[in-house]
């Protein structure tokens, strides 16, 4: 049956209800009644066989059926039982009753060809080995036991039975036997080859099937027909299926609905718009060709994968289907295709409207439905919505699959609510015992725990999944485990894991290491090591509330031959020392630092105001032949020197950027704010005037942050003159937040608070300060 997994699944041709023209080709679907099986034109053949048989010399022996004997009553009862068993498709009883009749010489005379054919028609479909043995024995012994010579019908039944039991070679041997007895007037025909093609389809041996297809072309009295092509189209590779469809048209064999449905799915998968559009139009213009929901789903899937259709084009077809094909009712797979399409076009709102249609239609959503909707919630980072869908799914007794649990785990990696994260941590172990989630899913869960600093839970999860469950961890697994300890302020434990991991990688034989330390690994750890925890932020507020007294270092540091940060005196902050350890290891392992690593190290130097470490990092940046710093790195470098009190170095870096014509290091708004902040904090306000005039003269797009930095810089000048100039800038060069049509940048409350704060610091009269507060309220209102 066509897999119910949304648009992608509908692109593959799955087993389904086989049409009349294909039922003998051994699909897993059931073929119940004799009339619907086209192994031969059975009605005609049975009449022919029966009329022929009744004129043979065996007619006199059959007349004993009408004579009276002690066993007549028993015989009639067994015949009636056999007939009922055949009508009820009861293979076991059919075999039993037939064997009882066959065991008696008198009753054996009652068995004729039509009866044998009815028995074979039923038992050939049996799944048991004893069913196959029964069919084979009956065909091989019927002439001896019943004086009835096997004909095409009986050999076809035996080949079919071999196909059911996935023994195509034995079926092929039957065909060879048929070709070797022309004296019996038995010649294979197209139906014979079609049945054999079905046998190879059963085992998915398309190569042998195609050779058989070519053999048919070489036979004089055997031609391809609709069944031949439908059988092959069902399981050959997609490009070959399209070739066969073209050949079918050249042979002027009229396709049926099944052909069109199969080819449309293949064309969708192969993105063949030429054939796909042709079939699509044929089906829409001939509703009678659309026999089942599978074909409708193929139409939806094809339309959903047309780049020029868009969501509106697919929705148009979706809403036309009830009127165009009133005899077809969409199933849950139809709605799953639409849900997947809405997700593809990033329209989760429409997806939930389709979900309402599904429930209104009476269809029952399945795990694919909920998985798709949970993906829609995941795109919106809505963990509450995803868990609500999960609760609804379990309320309907739908067991979640790996996709659902993986979606929750991946969503957990971004979750900020600790309680929702805890729910996911409880759900996944409860349901994941039935199947094996991939490492990526567990890494997502570890990532969520790491962000919240829940190291104990992360360690427990690692032990259960990777240490004791023989699942292979990757570099992301260890990264998240270490981040959990770092964010839990257990840095020594994180470093213990690192040292063990580093030792494993160094001692592994070449090509044998399962884990490779890479740039992403070091970038993540260094960024986490240098980020301030909540406890450290409080400590920094207490220790660094006053301007730094760290001595300045010259811009042109001494060049050293080594490529590591050494000779630190131990006064650096512990987190920064650990980050420097990682940084040095990274360079020794010949892993090139990228812009993120350098930026993280520079930001740490700025946070901890470590001028010596900053000098070393700056030296390494200039010595790194494989690294060209971009504007973001220059901004971080300037900011670090600003926090360390080296304002003149900031100005030198500014001059380098202004003189450079390389677009990679073109100044941006952040650069301007950094240099202005540095001028204000380090006593270079006179330089700020020239910088401000220059950027305004060249027409640089200045934002509110730039103005705030310049205003603060002016206010830091001694006396009142700079403050007055700052107030003038606010009045003349900025606009009120409500004046949205004014092209000037808007001032904000922070801007006005800066003016008022420095007015108090400069000991303005209280009346002036009060007037400034009223002025602020007027401007903001």
TrEMBL record:
Keyword Repeat applies: yes
Pfam families, per the entry: PPR (PF01535), PPR_2 (PF13041), PPR_3 (PF13812)
Domain of life: Eukaryota
Gene Ontology terms: cellular component: mitochondrial inner membrane
Record-given protein name: Mitochondrial group I intron splicing factor CCM1
PPR repeats: 189-219, 331-365, 366-400, 438-472
Location of the region described as Disordered in the Swiss-Prot/TrEMBL record: 51-74
Record's compositionally biased regions (Low complexity): 51-64
PANTHER family for the chain: OS03G0856100 PROTEIN (PTHR47447), OS12G0638900 PROTEIN (PTHR47447:SF17)
Keyword Kinase: no
Assembly and interaction partners: Binds to mitochondrial small subunit 15S rRNA.
Family affiliation: Belongs to the CCM1 family.
Protein function: Regulates mitochondrial small subunit maturation by controlling 15S rRNA 5'-end processing. Localizes to the 5' precursor of the 15S rRNA in a position that is subsequently occupied by mS47 in the mature yeast mtSSU. Uses structure and sequence-specific RNA recognition, binding to a single-stranded region of the precursor and specifically recognizing bases -6 to -1. The exchange of Ccm1 for mS47 is coupled to the irreversible removal of precursor rRNA that is accompanied by conformational changes of the mitoribosomal proteins uS5m and mS26.
GO biological process, one term: mitochondrial electron transport, cytochrome c to oxygen
Record's keyword terms, sorted: Repeat
């Amino acid at each position: 049956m066509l897999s119910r997994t949304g648009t992608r699944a509908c692109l593959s041709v799955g087993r389904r209800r086989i049409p009349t023209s294909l039922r003998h080709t051994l699909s897993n679907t059931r073929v119940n009644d004799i009339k619907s099986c086209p192994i031969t034109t059975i009605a005609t053949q049975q009449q022919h066989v029966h009329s022929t048989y009744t004129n043979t010399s065996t007619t006199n022996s059959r007349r004993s059926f009408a004579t009276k004997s002690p066993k007549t009553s028993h015989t009639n009862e067994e015949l009636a039982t056999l007939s009922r068993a055949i009508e009820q498709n009861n293979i076991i009883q059919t075999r039993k009753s037939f064997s009882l009749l066959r065991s008696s010489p008198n009753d054996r005379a009652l068995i004729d060809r039509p009866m044998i054919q009815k028995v074979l028609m039923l038992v050939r479909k049996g799944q048991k080995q004893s069913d196959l043995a029964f069919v084979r024995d009956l065909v091989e012994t019927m002439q001896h036991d019943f004086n009835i010579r096997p004909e095409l019908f009986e050999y076809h039944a035996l080949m079919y039975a071999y196909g059911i039991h996935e023994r195509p070679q034995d079926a092929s041997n039957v065909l060879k036997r048929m070709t070797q007895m022309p004296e019996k007037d038995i010649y294979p025909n197209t139906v014979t080859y079609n049945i054999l093609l079905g046998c190879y389809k059963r085992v998915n041996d398309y190569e042998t099937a195609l050779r058989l297809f070519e053999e048919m072309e070489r036979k004089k009295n055997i031609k391809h027909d609709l069944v031949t092509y439908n059988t092959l189209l069902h399981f050959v590779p997609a490009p070959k299926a399209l070739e066969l469809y073209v050949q079918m048209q050249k042979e002027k064999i009229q396709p049926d609905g099944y052909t069109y449905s199969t080819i449309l799915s293949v064309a969708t998968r192969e993105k063949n718009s030429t054939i796909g559009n042709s079939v699509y139009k044929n089906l829409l213009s001939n509703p009678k060709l659309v026999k089942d929901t599978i074909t409708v789903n193929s139409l939806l899937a094809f339309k959903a994968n047309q780049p020029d259709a868009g969501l509106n084009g697919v929705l148009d077809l979706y809403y036309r289907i009830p009127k165009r094909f009133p005899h077809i009712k969409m199933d849950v797979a139809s709605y799953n295709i639409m849900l997947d399409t809405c997700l593809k076009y990033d329209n989760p709102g429409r997806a939930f409207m389709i979900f309402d249609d599904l429930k209104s239609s009476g269809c029952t959503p399945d795990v694919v439905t909920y998985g798709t909707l949970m993906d829609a919630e995941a795109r919106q980072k809505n963990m509450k919505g995803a868990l609500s869908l999960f609760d609804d799914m379990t309320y309907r007794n739908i067991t979640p699959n790996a996709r659902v649990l993986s979606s929750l785990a991946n969503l957990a990696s971004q979750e900020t609510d600790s309680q929702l994260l805890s729910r996911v941590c409880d759900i996944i172990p409860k349901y994941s015992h039935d199947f094996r989630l991939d490492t990526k899913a567990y890494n997502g869960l570890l990532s969520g725990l790491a962000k919240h600093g829940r190291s104990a839970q992360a360690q427990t999860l690692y032990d259960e999944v990777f240490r004791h469950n023989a699942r292979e961890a990757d570099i992301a697994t260890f990264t998240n485990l270490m981040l959990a300890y770092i964010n839990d302020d257990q840095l020594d434990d994180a470093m213990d894991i690192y040292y063990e991991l580093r030792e494993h990688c160094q001692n592994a034989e070449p090509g044998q290491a399962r884990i490779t330390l890479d740039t992403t690994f070091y970038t993540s750890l260094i960024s986490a090591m240098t980020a301030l925890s909540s406890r450290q932020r409080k400590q920094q507020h207490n220790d660094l509330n006053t301007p730094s007294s760290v001595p300045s270092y010259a811009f042109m540091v001494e060049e050293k031959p080594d490529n590591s940060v050494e000779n630190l005196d131990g006064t650096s902050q512990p987190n920064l020392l650990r980050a420097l350890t990682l940084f040095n290891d990274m360079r020794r392992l010949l892993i090139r630092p990228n812009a993120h690593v350098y930026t993280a190290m520079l930001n740490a130097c700025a946070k901890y105001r470590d001028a010596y470490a900053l000098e070393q990092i700056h030296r390494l940046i200039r010595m790194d032949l494989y690294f060209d710093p971009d504007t973001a790195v220059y901004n971080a470098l300037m900011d670090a020197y600003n926090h360390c009190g080296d304002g003149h170095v900031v100005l030198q870096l500014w001059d380098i950027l202004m003189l450079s014509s390389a677009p990679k290091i073109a100044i941006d708004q952040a650069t301007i704010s950094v240099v202005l902040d540095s001028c204000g904090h380090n006593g270079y306000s006179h330089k700020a005037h020239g910088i401000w005039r220059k950027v305004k003269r060249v027409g640089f797009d200045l934002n509110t942050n730039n103005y705030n930095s310049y205003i603060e810089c002016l206010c830091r000048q001694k006396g009142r003159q700079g403050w007055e100039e700052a107030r003038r800038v606010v009045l003349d060069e900025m606009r009120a937040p409500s004046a949205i049509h004014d092209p000037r940048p808007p001032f904000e409350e922070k801007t006005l608070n800066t003016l008022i704060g420095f007015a108090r610091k400069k000991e303005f009269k209280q009346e002036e300060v009060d007037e400034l507060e009223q002025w602020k309220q007027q401007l903001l209102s």
